Amino acid sequence: MSREQVRIALVLPDLLGTYGDRGNVIVLAQRLAWRGIGSETVTVLSSAEAVPESCDLYVIGGGEDVAQVAAVRFLHRGPGLRRAVERGAPVLGICGGLQVLGISFVTGDGVRHDGLGLVDAVTEPGSGRAIGEVTTRSTVGGVGLLTGFENHLGRTRVGPDSQPLGRVVRGIGNGHDDAEGVVRGHVVCTYLHGPVLARNPKLADLLLEWAIGEPLEPLPDPPELSALRAERTRVHARNRK
Amino acid sequence: MTDTTRETRRTAIDGAPAARTGQRWRVIPAPTPPPTRTARRLDLRTTVAVDLGRLAATLSRLLGLGSGGMIGGRLALTLQPQALRRLAIGRRVVMVTGTNGKTTTTQMVAEALRSQAPAVSNATGANMLDGHVAALMTQPDAPFAALEVDELHLARVTAEFEPAVILLLNLSRDQLDRVGEIRTVAASLRRALAQAPGAHVIANRDDPNIVFAAADHPSVTWISGGVRWKNDALNCPNCGAFLGDTDDDWRCSCGLARPAADWTVTATGVLAADGTHHQLRLSLPGHVNRVNATFALAAALRLGCGLDPALARIGRIRQTAGRYDTVRLAGRQVRLLLAKNPASWLEMLDLVSGNGRRLVLSVNSREADGYDVSWLWDVDFEVLRDRWVQVAGDRALDLAVRLRYAGVPVEVVSSVEDAVAAAPDGVPDVIANYTAFRDLVTRSRR
Ligand SMILES: [Zn+2]
């Protein structure tokens, strides 16, 4: 791709954008801007024909059941996202985004829906909502400790074709073993809100490097970001319900 | 002026769109006079429950445990589970709900009604059933009550009794880890209205989620005041189809459509359905309060109040439970603004973005705020780019990171008091979310 202008697709924020997920795109664009790299945010609303396959990076957020079912129906309509993934473009799926990018998910009404199958993950409702601060340890791309906030009913099993994004240190995560999230190639999925890229700049930069295809110069974390990461990985035990 | 109300068009939520024969209007007959202030006889159990509840409230107050209202209401409800229903008999009750503006609008309704007769109110934010009982207990003979109600509790209220008027202000994302998602709330309001077919509904026609909740009710006055925050209404609340720009008229293929406005809020006042324009001279700032005032005015007229006396009383309100109030903090005058969720942050940022005052923001994430602060990223803090902003509160660091990414120069301070004490001359603005705001109000009164 051209390094001139990185095209970041915000996929279906009208359906899957309930939990500040737009913030992940703000973080990606700003981290490029701080390095003098331009970016363009391509907002794909459900009124669009389909997801364009030409973007460099895709972000899909979470939403409620009805919206999630409408979103997966929309995503099945065109091959754009699948082709982009085959080309190696990174995709970040959050919460409901994780579920629609997996093989299948079951909504609260017991109906099973086919996902896009871009990661090997199957989601079914749990006995209660998982709500609270989460810390996980990731081995992917040297991203290390991840911090976020989870709020989901689904419990997700990661299959042999994919790996978890991290191992739960505190919190619930996928609800099976101690896995949190799911990764296959450049498709990264997680239950972590926060937004996840705001709290975890290394993960943001990893996605950007995949999008650009070359290493980025390191950025020093602003002091409040280091302090926030330290605070969140320390205090969440107290805040958990 | 004439109070006109659109008769229900049987739309379509549950089936095929009904045949439309154009808009049918009817003029509501002259409003009934208020109930006379004869003491209503309560049954023995309710009387005992109310007496003991009041005693508990008084004791709680004397012991310094707070205002006592909640404890009294809770005790009365325990002793007489039907206390709400019994206390509401013979009164004309206005229920006010919606995500933002409940407390302010409730106070406006109460004040407007007082132009005619005594009205009780829970305009302090105690908006569940015990708060309602507590408010009604304070003056069992007052013919009017203006009660704010939590969005998810309106259905419990209408299961108990039928209010005279129900105000549906707006719905937007708020404390998702606690309250739940918009669709659930909209469906609950819809059920609540179905239980109160005899109530008169005053609803926001510019908010598709509110339109969904009220569309099938037989008696609705529609208010048009515009909606700044649109991200919770991009899709049809009924069927999920994309709606597009809801600033324009919209009609979904499922039949849900934007109703015509009975009252339209303008830059200076309100345009009534009969074409007359009325100036709104308010002490409270901003467009958002002209919208709130229009809702309150429509409710008051419905219950027989005169326009001018009602407006005069609404106009005199300077603060509601501390909101918009200029208070003393750390020896300084500061203006306190409450913002709890993306929609109300947009309104408050709009209010301060034009002035050059020192600005302090404070955000907590306690139980009453919701533990998740991801919503900070739904707020366009980018409008503050030219400002230098100080941040405080339990989640000052989250806010600082958000502002850093928005390109806003930011400083983390240990408390709002520290920030304002060091401020130069002038009256700083402080915008705080729920518990941060509540604590500031408490500390300012010391
Ligand atoms: Zn529809």
Tell me about this structure.
The complex is a heterodimer of chains A (241) and B (446). Chain A is of the alpha/beta class and 241 residues long. Helices cover 29% and strands 31% of the residues of chain A. Chain A is built from 7 helices and 12 strands. Chain A has helices at 22-33, 65-76, 80-86, 96-101, 196-199, 201-212, 223-239; strands at residues 5-11, 38-44, 57-60, 91-94, 104-106, 112-114, 121-138, 144-158, 166-170, 179-180, 182-184, 187-190. In chain A, strands 2-1-3-4-12-11 form a 6-stranded mixed β-sheet. In chain A, helix 1 (22-33) packs across helix 6 (201-212). Chain B is an alpha/beta fold. Chain B folds into 2 domains: 44-315, Mur-like, catalytic domain (UDP-N-acetylmuramoyl-L-alanine:D-glutamate ligase), CATH 3.40.1190; 326-444, Alpha-Beta Complex (Protein-Tyrosine Phosphatase, Chain A), CATH 3.90.190. Residues 1-30 of chain B have low confidence and may be disordered. Zinc ion binds next to loops of chain B. Chain B: This is Lipid II isoglutaminyl synthase (glutamine-hydrolyzing) subunit MurT.
Number of helices of chain A: 7
Tally of domains of chain B: 2
Share of residues in strands of chain B: 15-25%
Spatial sequence of strands, sheet with the most strands of chain A: 2-1-3-4-12-11
Give the helix proportion of chain B (percent range).
Answer: 25-40%
Gyration radius of chain A, in Å: 17 Å
Range of helix content of chain A = 25-40%
GO molecular function (chain B): acid-amino acid ligase activity; ATP binding; carbon-nitrogen ligase activity on lipid II; zinc ion binding
Domain Lipid II isoglutaminyl synthase (glutamine-hydrolyzing) subunit MurT C-terminal (chain B): 338-436
Pfam families (chain B): Mur_ligase_M (PF08245), MurT_C (PF08353)
Binding site for Zn(2+) (chain B): 236, 239, 252, 254
